[in-house]
Amino acid sequence: MKSFFSSLLFLILISGNARAFDTKNVEMFGYLRAGVGTNTYGGDQECFYNQGAGGGSGVGRNEFRLANECSNYLELGFRFNHIKSETKNVYTQFRIANTSPGNDSFESAKQSTNFVEAFAEIQGMNDLPYSFWVGKRFYRDQDVYIDDYYYFGSMNGNGAGMGNVDVLGGKFSLAYLREVTDTKTNIGTQGITVYDARLKNVPWNNSLKQNFWVAFGSAPEATDTTTKVKYEKANGYIVGTLLDYNINDNGFNHFAVLFGQGLMNNFNLYGDSTITLGNQQSSEKRLRFINHTTYNVNKKWAFHLSLNHERLMAGGETKEQWMGLGIRPVYRITETFHLVTEAGSSIVQNNGARRLSRVTIAPQLGLSEDIWGRPVLRAFYTHSFWNSKNKANIAQNAPTYADKTAGGAYGFQMETFF
Q1: Which of 34, 112, 280, 336 yields a CA-CA distance of 20 to 30 A from 8?
Q2: Residue 153 sits in which domain range?
Q3: Is residue 251, in this structure, part of any structural domain at all?
């Protein structure tokens, strides 16, 4: 890991001697959070997730995430501007992401580092305003910040596309994207192909704009070269819209409705491309509603608010439901000292209702009174509680609390954008 960053730094330094990569044309950006926490028994902090929240597999979304982040995380990106003017914009961009548990000094065997972006984009060439890109990128639009949840237009991966096309007062873009598995078949490595179309910022008035998103994905029929299992042809689609309301230049409200079917019912690139005869994926449909608000009420108060609902249906019946509600009020005691609290509750219904709720208090020192002002240094205490139906799921990530219905942690965290 150390040698990787040394090599990266060396490349950046020598790039200053190359005409195309003059250091004055290099932009660095990223995100970092790191901290330390102790659980209520005196051991290392353990985090609590409501599995199934937000669809997909794994532990679920990190809802009401303040003080419920048990790892250090870094995104570090560089943009090399070859041409940057009012009419032309040509750049190369890459970004790495590193995750580590934060247990010791080096953690060489416990952390992961990946290239999550590596693409080039050209805009304004040949006297055309359009943009064209090829590579791997974070191809995503809107998120719920307090849940760390990109819910609309999240198609991160490898692909190519064009954009900046004027349509109905907004901007239209089109992309071709691929996600490839490790499965070898008679037609090659199995994967998913997605065609993604977006129309952003269509104005209704000075305060209200609307986004539209449509995507179609498919995976071919194939036969596994090792097991000889036959994979059925799979496909699916996404349709969605998002209303973006500017609240008197003091914040925004985003309301989105999305519908996904079959291969695309998780609203991303990662549907199952290796389905066999009788698999339910083709009949699965997912409906998602999201309302996300960030608002500066006055000089003293501001808040983030999220209301999320999702329903997975298969064979004409509801297979799983999720509802989450959370709020993060910020009280500015002074311009740079804030009292931040967060409270939320989540319910996942799948063969019974699994509940998870959390309350957190976190005084922090910040760069400014802006709700987005970073960096911040926080102290925190967080308390989560869940019902008995959720014990086994919670224990998978927090084994210390396997026989409990509540748990907590205290500690410190820093967070910054740059």
Answers
A1: 34
A2: 130-292
A3: yes
Q: What is the CATH number of the domain that holds 280?
A: 2.40.170.10
The amino acid present at 237, given as its one-letter code, is: Y
pLDDT over threshold 50, residue 138: yes
Pick the range with the lowest mean pLDDT from 63-67, 242-246, 318-322: 318-322
Residue 199 lies in a domain: yes
Which is it for the CA torsion 67, 361, 365, 297, positive or negative? positive
Pick the closest to residue 93 from 124, 121, 74, 123 (CA basis). Answer: 121
Please indicate, yes or no, if residue 153 is contained in any of the structural domains: yes
Cα→Cα distances 256→29, 54, 73, 169, 292, Å:
28, 14, 28, 20, 9
The residues near 200 (Cβ < 8 Å, ≥ 6 apart) are: 141, 170, 171, 172, 173, 211
Number of compact structural domains in the chain: 1
In a domain, 381, yes or no: no
Model confidence pLDDT, tens digit, residues 71-109: 999 999 999 999 999 889 999 999 999 999 888 878 777
